[in-house]
Amino acid sequence: MTAALQRRLTLLHAVAIGLGSMIGAGVFTAIGLAAALTGGHPGLLYAALAVAAVAALCNALSTAQLATVHPESGGAYVYGRRQLHPWAGFVAGWGFVTGKTASVAAMAATLGLYLFPDDAAAARWTGVAAVVVLTGVAMAGVTRTAQATTAILVPVLAVLVLAIGAGLTREAPEGSAAALGVDSPVQGVLMGAGVLFFAFAGYARVATMGEEVIDPARTIPRAILIALAVTVALYLLLATALISGLGTSGLARSPAPVRDLLETALGSGWGWVAVAGAALAAAGAMLNLLTGVSRTALAMARESDLPRPLARVHAGTGTPWTAQLTVAAAVILLLLTTDILTVVGFSSFGVLVYYAVANLSALTLRGDDDGRRPARPRPLRVPRAVNVLGLALCLLLALSLPPMSVAAMAGVFLIGVGGRAFVRAGRRGR
């Protein structure tokens, strides 16, 4: 049946979902990749982290503003439709659904590779099994999703705290502070910030589930800002620990810096702890992505921007079961037919388009109401300069992505926009 979702998520649940989405497998690799992009210069690495944090904060504040006015599932898809135009909402929703579906497939493949690095078939089928199990958890209800996220998050945080402690109490190896060199410091900072920004982007998961949050006008903004503050502090401490324990050049050259830090500081037998933590973190991020994508698909189906059956909600569990199963099937298809790790870069462009629409939508909010629905709650008070800065940083980071990634996602957008125009023209004809 088609019905409304049920409000079951408390502030603690929402914060856990935000943290579980941001502290994914990327935290175990993103800092090392950003260090490589900035040439092993600690100052440039911290600058990249600062740019990513500012961009994430601006987007988080814009999202929080909009969530108080539109406490419904769908995130920027709903915000764009209500505040700008249905086409703006569609572009945001299409970018999120397609990009994040590919991201789930990439995380599933990564999870398999963590556990079976030398057996491609075993790694692929492990990823498929993870998608099936996590989809089952998501379909059991949103509170079960929050509880599973918390259960996953606790050991992941324990591993990261262990790594931070090991790094901060260790002096960097002699001669390891030499920089690798970088052609353009500004470009290095922007590319590093792009990598780190996408690790922060999980706070949007709370907004996409706005219809399931208790007292969303208060809970969603608080949950977004708390989760983002904790994540930024964690990344800052971890970056400092990795620089201290491995040195800047050692960090820039390491494909698995947390594992290398634990093995260097505590002994070779400790590498499995980092592998287990990364696998759990990937599973937690996958779970929340599967949930968030299905809610956006639900919102789009309600407006007939996706097939209407995707809007069906299970009466017992209160979950969009058809959307959840469809997303899982798409992820498994990508896993079995595509080398997703080589093509998933286009999803980054989709995420930035999604947040650009959110910032642009927030710019249209008025202080007394949303300008169109006087009965709505007042939006969170945020200076318009924050919305402008968030929009500018989204566009800047999008233009800093590899050209192939931009071209691939542009093609996906053309398919979506063309398909929607074709369907709408057919409806008008009938």
Q: What report would you give on this structure?
A:
This protein has 430 residues and is mainly alpha-helical. The chain has helices at 11-22, 30-37, 42-69, 76-83, 86-115, 120-139, 142-168, 185-200, 204-208, 216-246, 248-253, 257-266, 271-302, 321-337, 340-343, 346-363, 384-399, 403-429. Helix 1 crosses helix 13, helix 16 (346-363) runs antiparallel to helix 17 (384-399) and helix 16 crosses helix 18 (403-429).
SSE topology:
Blueprint: H1 11-22, H2 30-37, H3 42-69, H4 76-83, H5 86-115, H6 120-139, H7 142-168, H8 185-200, H9 204-208, H10 216-246, H11 248-253, H12 257-266, H13 271-302, H14 321-337, H15 340-343, H16 346-363, H17 384-399, H18 403-429
Helix pairs in contact: 1-7, 1-10, 1-13, 2-8, 3-8, 3-10, 3-16, 3-17, 4-5, 4-16, 5-6, 5-13, 5-14, 5-16, 5-18, 6-13, 6-14, 7-10, 7-12, 7-13, 12-13, 13-14, 16-17, 16-18
Structure summary:
The protein is mainly α and 430 residues long.
Query: Which geometry do the CA atoms define?
Result: globular
Order of helices and strands: HHHHHHHHHHHHHHHHHH
Output the number of helix runs.
Answer: 18
Main sheet overview:
none
How many beta strands in the DSSP annotation?
Answer: 0
Distance between the termini: 26 Å
Give the radius of gyration. Answer: 21 Å
Judged by helices, strands and strand pairing, the structural class is: mainly alpha
Percent range for β-strand residues: under 5%
Helix content: over 70%
Describe the structure using short key phrases:
430 residues; mainly alpha; 73% helix; globular
